[in-house]
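Chain A, query sequence.
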Amino acid sequence: MTDSRYLAPSWFTRNIFNRCVAGLTRLGISVYGSRVLVVKGRTSGLPREVPVNLLTYEGSRYLVAPRGTTQWVRNLRAAGEGELCLGRRTESFTATEVAEDQKVPVLRHYLAKWAWEVGAFFDGVGAKTSDDELRRIGPDHPIFRLSPR
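Chain A, predicted structure.
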């Protein structure tokens, strides 16, 4: 795992796009699979919220970090659990980080579904690229498998 890669969101993404997606999601309108992730801050202990894309693949649910080792990734690693919210519905979960040798099919499925939104964060690698290319970028994109709590 590498903790060095992090692509910070632009002002527009942080202040307009994420807030709009989170607002719609809180109202119960999922924007193509969106949820609001609530996870305890590793330093403050306060709940932190961020919109995420919830991926379902082969019966399991995943969170993929397209921007790398973000604050929500660090907080989720520390807490090991969190909540996903859609409208008034809240689901508690525990999170297990996916090993590098298991990332390729999850990344491929994630990119097939959301490349239009997050493709710029994957260095030109897409759903149809080789397994070797997906393995190459895997360490830059933490993935968590979610289990009901």
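Residues 68 and 134 are 14 Å apart (CA to CA). Helices lie at 11-26, 71-79, 103-118, 131-137.
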